[in-house]
Design a protein that fits this description.
23 helices; globular; 9-stranded mixed β-sheet; single chain; alpha/beta
Length: about 675
């Protein structure tokens, strides 16, 4: 990655330039009593300063994933001999000091004692609840992240490690430039590891999927890409085909073509499939061997990843902040400054009289604000039973169709009476894989044709109702402003700010918070982006639920340890009987958990809608407070005399010039970024 310093240097320059512009506008927003804009720009500054590119590396055990990460970083950061039974995420971050910080789950899972070392157990036992993180030397990392008794996991019991994640701090140039590497646990057969990966998908900017070049991507890896990674919204996937050096020269091209065929259509990146030797790359970087580094194939990946992060993801992040800040600047130039100037030019006695007279209307407006907020909350509350019913019915429908789908499955594996348990495991896994594929396919159709339409209608009705309230609120607010000045708005040089612009300013915090596009466009209206975010969240919850139900370890315990297995060994159609039994157990689990899963999905949907509406509701109160502060500020300053008012008018002129300069520079900056994005 070192060779791509130019990309990161350019990106850092853009960040610094945008930060300077936001800091300059922030000073004016604070002076103009623009509470919402001040808060949002402050948040944006924090994100620009502290935000990192999060790169998740995923892969099965024995693909050389840890070696690859070390090669990417150019240093022996991760131990490469960690057992495959660790279900812990490692976050590699920059620090001048090498250290690790272990974070524990709160509350702790049950039955974890056999999974941790004596050293880890001793630390945990010191705290009854809320185990605080512990900073440890890197050399002690295995004591906390390696499961002490791997056979416990393999027995199929519902065990879970008490460690949530590990932060590894290292003085690495790549991380110093704002890249954070997230090393996910191996996927294997333990779905708890897959759940760990799922929890991170909303946070990461890039996904690197490591596979073994020989034998190439396996069916379970392809299924994970299709059913989980891409369904979570990550279409731009980097496939890292490792250990290419272990394939003979005469077979290498043939194997590359085979892998390209297997991965065709799995990523939207033009340059998304990379063949490398992680061990060669690591050795080359540790020993400064340029020729070996070129041969390893990692430099091409470095180029693609740095370009994707800085010129695709990074520019889009900065562009969203820049464009929305332009709207906030226009609000200050077109409304706040002209209004304050008019207040300063109004007779003090008249201004005090009008402000006193308008107190009842301001108080009523505050009451109206509460009514609007309560109405929004009530509409959202009424959504809950509708969503819950639709989702619960969907689970029940799937459960009733599982036996039919199971019956139609054509298995490639058969029970071998020479190795009944091993062959049974293969049949159970194959049946579960095919059921998962079918259920996920049905889920997609239902989400698109039923749930999406239902939710869109409900939310659109809610937004249409809110639009009327929101518009009435701002019409009254505008009338109060003109009455304070005893003038019509058209005659005072104040441009009327559209409802959409006001809403846009309110949702700016959402945009820079990586939630997605605003729910408001040119006017307060429904936008598909909210639905897209909800459907993505719903997909993640559904996938997590399905992984729990289709956990092969659980079914293995139920089938192989009971009387059914003895019956199976005597059956003349054992393979079909086992397949049908798997379907029955899946059906039972779906029915058993449908109410809880429906509630969880409903909670996530409602949470996302509330997340979108929260800043809008807050902005209503902010508008009233801002008006009061501006008028009271003008009255206070006018009481100090004409000379003081003249000084304040000069200050307003200065802030006006400053914001105009910021606006011009932001426009140029936005056009530059937008143009570069369109070129990529």
């Amino acid at each position: 990655m070192t060779a791509q310093n130019g990309d990161f240097n350019q990106y850092l320059t853009w960040k610094q330039n945008l930060s300077s512009l936001l800091e300059e506008s922030l000073e004016s927003f604070e002076y103009l009593q623009m509470e919402t804009e001040t808060s949002v720009v402050s948040v944006s500054l924090g994100k620009i300063t502290n935000d990192t590119f999060k790169v998740m590396v995923i892969g099965n055990y024995n693909t050389g994933k840890s070696t690859f990460i070390n090669a990417l970083l150019g240093s022996d950061v991760l131990p490469t001999d960690i057992l495959p039974c660790t279900a812990v995420v490692n976050e590699v971050k920059y620090s001048k000091e090498k250290k690790a910080v272990v974070h524990f789950k709160n509350p702790l899972p049950q039955n974890y004692a056999n999974l941790v070392s004596d050293k880890a157990q001793k630390y945990i036992s010191k705290h009854s609840v809320d185990i605080p993180p512990i900073e440890i030397p890197i050399r002690e990392l295995n004591d906390y992240v390696v499961i002490a008794n791997p056979e416990v996991v393999q027995e199929g019991s519902q065990v879970e490690t008490p460690v949530e994640k590990v932060e590894i701090f290292w003085p690495i140039e790549l991380c110093e430039r704002g890249v954070e590497i997230i090393d996910s646990p191996g996927l294997e057969d333990d779905n708890s590891r897959t759940q760990v990966v799922l929890n991170y998908f909303n946070k990461v900017d890039a996904v690197l999927f490591v596979v073994n070049s020989n034998p190439g991507p396996q069916q379970n890896e392809i299924a994970f890409v299709d059913n989980i990674i891409r369904k979570s919204g990550h279409e731009y996937i980097f496939f890292v085909c490792n250990k290419i050096d272990l394939i003979s020269d005469k077979d290498r091209d043939r194997m590359k073509n085979f892998i390209r065929g297997r991965l065709k259509g799995k990523t939207l990146l033009e340059d998304g499939i990379h063949f490398i030797s992680a061990s060669q790359a690591l050795h080359a970087r540790l020993n400064d061997d340029r020729l070996l580094l070129d041969d390893s194939g990692i430099l091409r990946l470095d180029n693609s990843l740095s370009k994707f992060l800085t010129k695709d993801k990074g520019k889009i992040k900065l562009l969203a902040i820049s464009k929305e800040c332009i709207g906030a600047v226009r609000l200050g130039l077109d409304e706040r400054i002209p209004f304050l100037k008019r207040l300063f030019n109004t007779d003090l006695v008249e201004l005090e009289r009008k402000y006193a007279e308008l107190q009842p209307r301001l108080e009523k407006l505050e009451h109206d604000k509460e009514v609007i907020v309560n109405r929004i909350n009530e509409r959202i509350k009424r959504l809950r039973p509708s969503i819950n019913t639709v989702v619960s019915n969907h689970f029940e429908s799937i459960a009733h169709r599982v036996p039919y789908w199971t019956k139609e499955i054509n298995l490639q594996n058969e029970i071998s009476f020479w190795s009944p348990r091993d062959s049974s495991k293969k049949i159970i896994q194959e049946t579960l894989d095919k059921l998962q594929s079918k259920i996920m396919s049905e889920q997609e159709v239902w989400a698109e044709q039923t749930f999406n339409l239902m939710l869109e209608n409900h939310v659109r009705d809610m937004m249409n109702e809110f639009q009327k309230d929101y518009q009435n609120f701002h019409v009254e607010l505008a009338d109060i402003k003109t009455d304070i000045l005893s003038l019509n708005t058209n005659n005072v040089g104040i441009r009327e700010i559209s409802i959409g612009e006001r809403a846009g300013a309110a949702v700016l915090g959402l945009l820079v918070g990586d939630i997605g596009a605003a729910i408001f466009g040119g006017a307060v209206g429904f936008d598909k982006s909210l639905l897209k975010q909800i459907m993505m969240q719903l997909g993640l919850v559904f996938t997590a639920m399905l992984l729990g139900i289709l956990n092969p370890f659980v079914l293995l315990g139920l089938i192989l340890s009971g009387s059914f297995f003895h019956y199976l060994m005597k059956s003349s159609k054992a393979t079909d009987d086992l397949k049908i039994k798997v379907g029955q157990l899946v059906q039972e689990k779906l029915i058993e958990g449908k109410d809880q899963q429906a509630k969880e999905m409903t909670d996530k949907v409602i949470e996302r809608i509330e997340e979108y509406m929260r800043p809008i509701k807050k902005s209503l109160e902010s508008e009233i407070n801002s008006l009061r502060k501006q008028v009271e500020f003008a009255i206070q300053e006018k009481r100090k005399g004409h000379a003081h008012v003249k000084a304040k008018m000069d200050e307003l002129d200065s802030h006006e010039r400053s914001l105009k300069k910021v606006e011009t520079t932001l426009n140029d900056f936005t056009f530059e970024l937008a143009g570069l994005i369109s070129q990529n």
